[in-house]
């Protein structure tokens, strides 16, 4: 999990002084044909010669694996050095560094790519070389060589990156949105599908062939060419975050959450917003911030102001608050019963949902990033120069201490 988040986006200079949430992001969804990988095949247009069968799930330039291929994209803020750490083999790959003259201070991911932003708004795209394509009844797992794809000139500060199988939406704090063509990214090139000004108040999210842009007045709906085509009937005042989940897109709003789904009764074309209000008596200072989740989960978490942690179960449309105290980051394994919280003193703790502490890691760490996947949690420790891997199903047992070869100021997980 990019838990990301943003699970996992944040300002390095302020994350140690205020709440932040970093979580893995949801898996990219794609259709699955019967026996072709799609696109041109050898023999097409060659005067009638028979084309060889393309294996199901074939992706040019990638190797298909039998299980997920998790990796960490790790960045050193001061130098711009970037490494990709293979969590299966512990091999470390050096990729082209970011021009760190302006200082690398943000890193977010979308399941395959890491987006590193400098203080001047420039974004460098790194291909982690591992990803999952989930078809519902089965999944395909791929691995390829990690690499730096290229650099995208910016303007404002990067707010977030969200993706589907077609585009990645990068949102900046000046309200502008850039859509990147993911097919081009896979080929090692940066190509803008659209760039538009949207007065965004939070990160734009691709969904059902369109792009949702939460703003101060409404949730605007754009097409993939950057043209506004409508808005949801339900507003989202003061948007603070967004996440793609197995149930749809969930937005963090001043009065609670807004879950956006496709209306099957309308042929899947209409988008519907369903408000999920906070429990009665919730104070404005305790509203949820940025959401994070484990990939493929229907449960999201967020800091509850500066006091503790919210969990939102989208299956039940229910909020639960867990008395963790102030946190640097939080995440949920998705079991509906556990919350992980990185306390201000650097101790990773596990809590029963809405209840008491169940376990704590033995030693505090110095990092504010918490990433989570289906079996492990990862916490960076810049002071020690390592990343700690915890087994959250075994009382937060320290499973491994990983050396990425650079100071792990920032990280995201890919491949899940």
From TrEMBL:
<dbReference type="InterPro" id="IPR011048">
    <property type="entry name" value="Haem_d1_sf"/>
</dbReference>
<protein>
    <recommendedName>
        <fullName>ABC transporter</fullName>
    </recommendedName>
</protein>
<feature type="compositionally biased region" description="Gly residues">
    <location>
        <begin position="35"/>
        <end position="48"/>
    </location>
</feature>
<feature type="region of interest" description="Disordered">
    <location>
        <begin position="35"/>
        <end position="55"/>
    </location>
</feature>
């Amino acid at each position: 999990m990019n838990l990301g988040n943003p699970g996992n986006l944040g300002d390095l200079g302020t994350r140690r002084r205020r709440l932040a949430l970093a979580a893995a992001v949801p898996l990219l969804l794609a259709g699955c044909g019967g026996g072709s990988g799609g696109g041109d095949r050898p023999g097409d247009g060659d005067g009638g010669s028979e084309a060889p069968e393309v294996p199901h799930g074939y992706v040019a330039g990638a190797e298909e694996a039998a299980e997920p291929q998790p990796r960490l994209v790790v960045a050193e803020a001061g130098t711009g050095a970037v490494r990709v750490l293979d969590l299966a083999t512990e091999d470390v790959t050096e990729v082209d560094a970011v021009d760190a003259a302006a200082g690398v201070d943000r890193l977010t991911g979308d399941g395959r790519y890491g987006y590193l932003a400098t203080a001047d708004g420039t974004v460098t795209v790194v291909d982690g070389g591992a990803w999952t394509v989930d078809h519902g009844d089965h999944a395909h797992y791929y691995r390829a060589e990690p690499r730096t794809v290229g650099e995208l000139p910016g303007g404002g500060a990067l707010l977030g990156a969200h993706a589907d199988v077609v585009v990645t939406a990068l949102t900046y704090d000046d309200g502008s949105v850039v859509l990147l063509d993911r097919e081009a990214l896979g080929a090692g090139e940066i190509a803008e599908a659209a760039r538009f000004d949207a007065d965004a108040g939070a990160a734009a999210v691709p969904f059902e062939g369109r792009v949702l842009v939460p703003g101060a007045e409404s949730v605007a709906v754009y097409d993939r060419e950057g043209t506004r085509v409508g808005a949801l009937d339900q507003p989202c005042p003061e948007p603070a975050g967004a996440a793609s989940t197995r149930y749809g897109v969930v937005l963090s709003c001043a009065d609670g959450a807004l879950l956006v789904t496709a209306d099957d009764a309308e042929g899947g074309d209409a988008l519907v917003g369903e408000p999920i209000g906070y429990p009665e008596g919730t104070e404005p200072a305790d509203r949820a911030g940025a959401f994070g989740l484990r990939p493929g989960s229907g449960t999201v978490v967020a800091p509850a102001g500066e006091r503790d942690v919210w969990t939102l179960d989208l299956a039940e449309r229910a909020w639960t608050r867990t008395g963790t105290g102030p946190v640097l980051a939080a995440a949920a394994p998705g079991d509906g019963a556990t919350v992980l919280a990185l306390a201000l003193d650097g101790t990773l703790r596990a809590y029963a949902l809405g209840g008491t502490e169940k376990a704590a890691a033995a030693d505090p760490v110095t990092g504010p990033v918490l990433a989570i996947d289906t079996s492990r949690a990862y916490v960076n420790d810049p002071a020690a120069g390592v990343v700690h891997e915890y087994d959250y199903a075994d009382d937060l047992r320290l499973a491994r201490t990983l050396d990425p070869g650079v100071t792990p100021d920032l990280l995201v997980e890919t491949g899940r």
